[in-house]
UniProtKB/TrEMBL annotation:
The lineage of its organism: Bacteria, Bacillati, Bacillota, Clostridia, Eubacteriales. Pfam families: Flavodoxin_2. Also exhibits azoreductase activity. Catalyzes the reductive cleavage of the azo bond in aromatic azo compounds to the corresponding amines. Quinone reductase that provides resistance to thiol-specific stress caused by electrophilic quinones. Keywords: Flavoprotein, FMN, NAD, Oxidoreductase. It catalyses: 2 a quinone + NADH + H(+) = 2 a 1,4-benzosemiquinone + NAD(+); N,N-dimethyl-1,4-phenylenediamine + anthranilate + 2 NAD(+) = 2-(4-dimethylaminophenyl)diazenylbenzoate + 2 NADH + 2 H(+). Belongs to the azoreductase type 1 family. Its cofactor is FMN. Residues 2-197 form the Flavodoxin-like fold domain. This is FMN dependent NADH:quinone oxidoreductase. FMN binds at T137, S138, G139, G140. SUPFAM superfamilies: Flavoproteins. Binds 1 FMN per subunit. InterPro entries: Flavodoxin_fold (IPR003680), Flavoprotein-like_sf (IPR029039), FMN-dep_NADH:Q_OxRdtase_AzoR1 (IPR050104), NADH:quinone_OxRdtase_FMN_depd (IPR023048). GO terms for molecular function: electron transfer activity; FMN binding; oxidoreductase activity, acting on NAD(P)H as acceptor; oxidoreductase activity, acting on NAD(P)H, quinone or similar compound as acceptor.
Length: 202
């Protein structure tokens, strides 16, 4: 049995999000294929997450300095660290993803929970994670673009996996939903099918 954390970073709301629709097709197929897995869904838009201010960082650091890793304040980080598989649904915004997801990553990036600084200056990942999957959709078509420029979400999340000790990273990227002349409904139908097929072996 695996613990799966499904992180919904679809900032426009899951009710209208095409990215969420693809992720939902993935999760439904995953559930059917892995009935014994424990799946937790986290809707970031409902959590009231805010970016760190100096004052809050002082509070956080003081809590960590007195060994407060078990405090409720760090529950998102502990949940992330305990997951065997992490699925992130996030639309493609401005070369990456909504700030909502960045704020979440900052909240789970906690020394002593998701990573640990080593005496030699390197970071050691503390997460159980076997793998992470990013499900995204974009208005444009980046199929033939240089992903070192246009795929910064991929390189960033790969780096986060390396830092936190999550072993593998995969992504499903649906392109071209906002290109005039394209048929977004048909593209989405294909994407959902592909996501459901991918779920069977993931
Ligand atoms: C704030 C914002 C920024 C976006 N930036 C890009 C972009 O840089 N490139 C692109 O191709 N599409 C961009 N889009 C379009 C979305 O990627 C596209 O509509 C996507 O399918 C939206 O997913 P959703 O329905 O899950 O919200 C952007 C949309 C928004 C709202």
């Amino acid at each position: 049995m695996s613990k799966v954390l499904f992180v919904d970073a679809c900032a426009r709301g899951w009710e209208v999000s095409r990215t969420y629709a693809v992720a939902e097709a993935f999760m439904n197929a995953y559930r059917a294929q892995h009935p014994r897995d424990e799946i937790e869904e986290l809707t970031l838009a409902g959590l009231g997450l805010t970016y760190f201010t100096g004052k809050e960082l002082e509070y956080r650091d003081a809590l960590l300095a007195r060994g407060g890793q078990a405090d409720d304040y760090f529950k998102l980080a502990r949940q992330f660290a305990a997951a065997d598989k992490i699925v992130i649904a996030a639309p493609y915004w401005d070369l990456s993803f909504p700030a909502l997801l960045k704020v979440y990553i900052e909240r789970v990036s906690v020394s002593g929970i998701t990573f640990s600084p080593e005496p030699d200056g390197r970071l050691r990942g503390l997460c159980r994670g076997e793998k992470m999957l990013l499900i995204t959709t974009s208005g444009g078509d980046f199929t033939h673009e240089d992903l070192s420029l246009y795929g910064t979400a991929l390189s960033y999340l790969r780096g986060i996996c390396a830092m936190f000790g999550v072993d593998g990273f995969d992504y499903l990227w649906t392109h071209g939903l906002d290109i005039v002349g394209n048929d977004p409904e048909a593209i989405l139908r294909g994407a959902k099918k592909q996501a459901a097929a991918f779920a069977e072996s993931w």
